[in-house]
Amino acid sequence: MEGCLFCKIINKEIPGDIVYEDDDILAFNDIDPKAPVHVLIIPKQHIPTFNDIDDPAIIGKITRIIQKIAKEKNIDKGGYRVVANCNKNGGQAVYHLHYHLLGGRELGWPPG
Q1: Where are the domains of the chain?
Q2: What is the dihedral of CA 54, 57, 61, 67, to 10 degrees?
Q3: What's the CA gap between 27 and 14, in Å, rounded?
Q4: Which of 9, 50, 62, 65 has its CA 20 to 30 A from that of 56?
Q5: Is-above-0.85 flag for pTM?
Q6: pLDDT on residue 112
Q7: Three-class secondary structure of residue 20 per DSSP
Q8: Is the dihedral of CA 61, 42, 59, 23 positive or negative?
Q9: What is the CATH architecture of 5-93?
Q10: Residue 105 CB contacts under 8 Å (≥ 6 apart), including other chains
Q11: How many angstroms separate the CA atoms of 39 and 28, rounded?
């Protein structure tokens, strides 16, 4: 989608610190990390919000990638948080479905 920050990273129009990529999924380090590990995991298909998911299989694939990255970053045993914000009141800033993988320290609750 034209103008979408994450689509520009997918298309290599702007750089991203990529930690994982396949035909369907891209994962990259957040430019403003909120934890020692803060990775964004996105589908390459432009899906604006969680409400717009048509094919739930993409969620299964993203879940497997999150597990893989958590293990590679050595946060799988200590614990981590996965967050998907939806729309303005949910805190979504970029309207391309994405998941935050946060870890590497103890995370407080409630989050915000």
Answers
A1: 5-93
A2: 100
A3: 14
A4: 9
A5: yes
A6: 61
A7: strand
A8: negative
A9: 2-Layer Sandwich (3.30)
A10: 35, 36
A11: 5
Q: Residues 20, 69: contact at Cβ < 8 Å? A: yes
Tokens representing 54 are: 């048509």
52 token code pair: 């717009």
Structure tokens belonging to residue 27: 């994962």
pLDDT of residue 110: 84
Match 């020692």 to its residue by tokens: 36
Place of tokens 């964004």: 40
Assess contact for 93 and 31: CB atoms under 8 A: no
Catalytic residues: 98
